[in-house]
Amino acid sequence: MSLPFPPRQLYYDGQVHAASSGQSFQTINPATATPLADIQIASRADIDKAIGAADRAFPSWSQTPLITRARILHKAAALLRERNDEIARVETLDSGKAFTETSTVDVVTGADVLEYYANFIGGGGLNGETTQLREDAWVYSKKAPLGVALLFSQILSYGQRCSSWDPFSALWKSAACLAAGNTMIYKPSEFTPLHGQTLAEIYTAAGLPAGVFNVINGAGDVGAYLTSHPTIAKVSFTGQVSTGMKVAGSAAGNMKYVTMELGGKSPLIICPDAELENAVDGAMMANFYSTGQVCTNGTRVFVPRSMKAAFEKCLLEKIQYVRAGPLFDKQTNFGPLSSAVHYEKVVSYIRHGIETDHATLLCGGLEKPSIPKDLQAGFWVQPTVFTDCTDSMRIVKEEIFGPVMSILYYDSVDEAVQRANTTELGLAAGVFTKDLNQAHRVIDQLQAGITWVNTWGESPAEMAVGGWKKSGLGVENGRRGIEAWLQNKSTLVDMSGAVATVFAKL
């Protein structure tokens, strides 16, 4: 059977290579449950060749003048923007996100990050420091790249986190990695792999030397081999908490640098004085954008008990504006889940909320949304809202990574903050209030690395983002984001002409 896209192969040493394993898997269109392309799986020999190419490219790339690196990243950003709609169309088919989202967010914001780091390094952002200790001695520091880095996302079976943000995430990570002078291996998620080869070709067209950006396809065994490879100096992982802890342990045990972007169960606190419609709009964006497949989603919505009736009424009025349907229809703003296994997982949580947690189902549920007949085989769920939830419910405690909102009522803001922090996760949090003094007090108490006031979800290139607790290690983006791809060298220079010593003749 002819598939919509040609097979995706491996990309290393500046060109496409057929995998030697003889094995492949199919990536599936989530909207229709039909195959899109065959994806060739890398063998260990293929991985060794790709890492070898990255290792050979490192000495030259790490010594490439910063202004030259900056020009290449600027060119890559320009090429991404030129091909925005083309890339967005493929990503819509591969991830299930509506074209209204992929065409305005994924490539656009990824190109923004490339430009940010191109400007950063071109403007002296990697300059070291100089300190004069005394008249005849001084210290200078220098920032050096780490070596060959591994960037990957992992999707496992039950308990998975889907990576519907792969292209955006790949650009976030690779921009800082390459700007710092590292070379890299990228393993896309096996559920959204089509963009990997495209990014490699764009980087090559922009002037990135052969071997600097390489793409390997495969599942968990490929990721495990990459992580344990002795040549890999840094591992940047996006995925579920349990897998991330294993990856971090393995990498740190071999003295590799790590950045972990893991899961969340983020609280959104609506204060009693919040403007009602803004609060509801924020809660909906924090739960239903990207069909809920965003790690920073604010799925625990804390609402004052006094606002219960008004909040639920407004939410039910606005839920009609969540429009599932053909993904290239300009009216569609809600797509399917990214895979069959993830669909089963999300549905199982909704069923658990109804049958075991006994939460009140305000809207949504187990039935598929109203969609055309040709989409009914796809992995569609309704935007679902549970109310009258308690902190002990499974749907409240565990990351679902789907469009499932849990509303929890509270009597005082201090109580809401205390309950919001009662979790092992700490990725994101937010507050809606007209009182900015109160907003800052609440934000200061919330145990999360990414926080918002009177908004939700925006993460511009200038904003360093990363999780607390078990939600991650390190940050991405912003000035601090590039530090994770560098190591420091300090040198003390003595010009006195004499060496101080305690071993002198008495």
Notable features of this structure?
506 residues; 22 strands; 21% strand; alpha/beta; NAD; oxidoreductase; Aldehyde Dehydrogenase, Chain A, domain 1; metal ion binding; Aldehyde Dehydrogenase, Chain A, domain 2; aldehyde dehydrogenase (NAD+) activity; 15 helices
Described by its quaternary structure, the protein is single chain
Q: How would a textbook summarize the main sheet?
A: 7 strands, mixed
Percent range of helical residues: 25-40%
| CATH homologous superfamily identity of the largest domain | Aldehyde Dehydrogenase, Chain A, domain 1
Low-confidence spans: pLDDT under 50, at least 5 residues?
155-165
Q: What is the count of distinct domains?
A: 2
Helix segment tally: 15
Report the mean per-residue pLDDT as an integer.
Answer: 94
How would you describe the shape?
Answer: globular
Distance between the termini: 91 Å
Instruction: Evaluate the radius of gyration.
Output: 24 Å
Q: The CATH topology of the largest domain is what?
A: Aldehyde Dehydrogenase, Chain A, domain 1
CATH architecture of the largest domain: 3-Layer(aba) Sandwich
Strand order of the largest sheet: 14-15-16-13-12-18-19
User: How big a fraction of the residues is strand?
Assistant: 15-25%
CATH class of the largest domain: Alpha Beta
Secondary structure: number of strands: 22
Structural class: alpha/beta
